[in-house]
Amino acid sequence: AQREVPTAAAEDETVHEVVVVGSGPAGYTAAIYTARANLKPVVFAGSVTAGGELMNTTEVENYPGFVEGIMGPELMANMQQQAERFGADIRYEDVVAADLEGEIKTLTLEDGSVHRARAVIVATGSAYRELGLPDEKRLSGHGVSWCATCDGFFFKEQHIAVVGGGDSAIEEATFLTKFASKVTIIHRREAFRASEIMQQRAFDDPKIEILWNSEVVGINGADKVESLVLRDTVTKETSELAVTGLFVAIGSDPRTDLVKDQLELTADGTIAVDGRSSTTSLAGVFAAGDVVDPTYRQAITAAGSGCVAAVDVEHYLAALD
Ligand code: FAD
After folding, report:
1. Residue 316 has what DSSP assignment?
2. How far is the centre of ligand 1, averaged over its atoms, from the C-alpha of 54 (Å)?
3. Buried-most residue among 197, 276, 290, 301 (CB within 10 A)?
4. Residue 184's beta-bridge partner residues?
């Protein structure tokens, strides 16, 4: 139950049991569990990006329970409604500042209003880096992807391209050879940053072709990707490469701006949590989803992680009471 602190400005002084920051699979799952545990969660869902990364995609075929798959935005609308059915209070606002030390945490919104809670779940996700091309967003889910595990299956017997030169780019390219007829890695330098062993795997793979000193400067296609415009970084000459898919693998940035000065982070830039729990370096602050995960980054792992955070919050509050 919520605790009313008796002051004149009672409404502003409400101390919520738990506030969730973020509304991707991790945030909504944490909301469903904490709502069903009668903790009356308030969810700050974000203003323009509510629903998280899956709002940017089309079919999701690997989230269990949907035999025929489900559209990303529909899956997120379902999670939102499921959380609301149990009383989660979802507010489409951005948290701009947080004070997470002490027994009562405070969160400040853009309008300056301050909200208090005994526990906070940070589920702010992680942003894949984009190339910054005008057609990249438009063709996202229509040939442009950031996740080989999610979308490789859609590209059976097709020629696709992967942009990047680090371990994750090579890993994505190697994984994609299971489906594609050919995978072209496009890298703007003349050597990879990836580890030797990963590189060798790419060099040895007959389905992988590498274009060095090349960058993608355009993506063509009316409804889906048809070709890429490449520029040679040395000669500046442009050329066209006919592919039906483009996987962008140039890294990702966990969204930690709100908390990075207060919570311990890992070398990967994710929020550090204790073992398999969601416990952060501050008591009463829990973190879940892609913001703690440099490796798996799937909707189902984020949802599982949101469940872990909710259960951790229940235990934390029960021990205090
Ligand atoms: P996110 O989904 O990133 O959600 C984070 C939330 O935090 C957002 O709602 C954002 O608005 C909010 N937020 C951030 N900062 C603040 C703040 N200060 N105040 C308030 N709110 C804030 N995974 C699959 O399993 N299957 C797929 O098919 C699949 N396809 C994908 C396709 C694309 C194009 C992309 C980009 C990803 C895909 N993924 C897929 C990966 C999946 O989307 C992520 O793993 C998952 O969404 C992570 O969930 P999350 O809850 O941790 O974070």
Report:
1. H
2. 6
3. 290
4. 161, 209
CB-CB contact of 193 with 209 (8 Å)? no
Type of residue numbered 256: T
CB 145 within 8 A of CB 247: yes
Catalytic residue among 150, 290, 293, 312: 150
Strand stretches in 123-222, DSSP E: 126-128, 144-145, 159-163, 182-186, 208-211, 214-220
pTM: 0.88
Annotate 239-257 with b (16+ C-beta within 10 A) or e (fewer): eebebbbbbbbbebebbbe
Phi (first) and psi of residue 121, to 5 degrees = -110, 120
Q: Tell me whether residue 109 is exposed, middle or buried, using C-beta atoms within 10 angstroms of its C-beta: 0 to 12, 13 to 18, 19 or more.
A: middle
ipTM entry: 0.99
Ligand 1 neighbour 94 (Cβ under 6 A): yes
Q: Ligand 1: does its nearest atom lie under 6 Å from the Cβ of 147? A: yes
Q: Is 70 exceeded by the pLDDT of residue 2?
A: no
3-state class (DSSP) for residue 84:
helix
Q: In angstroms, rounded to a whole number, what is the distance separating the alpha carbons of residues 248 and 161? A: 9
Q: What's the pLDDT at 48?
A: 86
CA-closest residue to ligand 1 atom 30: 150
